[in-house]
Amino acid sequence: MSNRIVTRCASLLLAAFVVAGCSDDEPTGIDVLPFDVSPISFAVDQGASKQMKITGIAMSDVTWESTNPAIASVSSTGLVTGVAVGGPIAITARSKANPTTDLASATFQVNAVLSGTVIQRNTDNIISLSARTRYRVFIPEGTTSVTFRLLGPNGDADFFVRFGAAPVVSYSASNNTSSSCVSAGAGTNESCTFTNPAEGTWYILVDPYEAFTDANLRVSTTP
Fold first, then answer.
1. I want to staple 71 with a disulfide (CB 3.0 to 4.6 A). Which of 65, 86, 164, 175 is the partner?
2. DSSP letters along the chain, please?
3. Tens-place pLDDT, residues 67-79
4. Average pLDDT, the chain
């Protein structure tokens, strides 16, 4: 056998060895797990609670920590409670097996619960007003759409809607955002709609430009 043939055979055997060594079935020695917490960013009312969730690891294998328990505390099971108004603060998940390593974090803000007449979703609320009055309603998790509507037979009312804080009495177009709205049409026929609204307390300020009676204030949610 010539040296050329020997060299060629050796090269083919070496190439086959390299290909076999690069097989997808070989372990890489790197184990990557997707750790995700939810919610990732949230505003909770003072005194209210929100349960954290995590994927990629069992909840029983996780510890939770708040960067400021005086604002928002978190239990060993991941239940976050708004203690005092403030934030944002971080809620961090760590593995019990490796407590020095952060798995994932979420940001929390604690909102004040403002005074206001409480109304229920998907319920007619008949009101008559001659002065500004504030209402509040809780929008739950999973709501895909919410419409605030005021409809009455007389007078002229404007209304302002805002999530988590007192509505701003402003007729500027910049007041219409994903978390606030102004409706100031003629008469008592006002509405604001939000898609995928934030979970929590929303506030409605009704401002009678002219006093009105027997108007229906309704907050309709889907689902």
1. 86
2. --HHHHHHHHHHHHHHHHHHHT-TTS--S------EEE-SEEEEETT-EEE-EEESS-GGGEEEEES-TTTEEE-TT-EEEE-SSEEEEEEEEEETTEEEEEEEEEEEEEE-----EE--TT--EEEEESS-EEEEEEEPTT--EEEEEEE-SSSEEEEEEEESSPPP----GGG-SSSEEEE--SSSEEEEEEESPPSEEEEEEEEEEE-EEEEEEEEEEE-
3. 999 999 999 999 9
4. 87
Q: Residue 34's pLDDT is what?
A: 63
For residue 54, the tally of other CB atoms under 10 A from its CB is 19
Residues 6+ apart with CB under 8 A from 185: none
Mean of pLDDT values over 165-172: 91
Cα–Cα distance between 169 and 155 in angstroms, integer?
Answer: 19
Could you tell me which of 132, 131, 136 has the C-alpha nearest to residue 116?
A: 136
One-letter amino acid of 40:
I
In CATH, the number for domain 36-111 is 2.60.40.1080
Q: For residue 59, what is the DSSP state?
A: G
CATH topology of domain 117-222: Jelly Rolls (2.60.120)
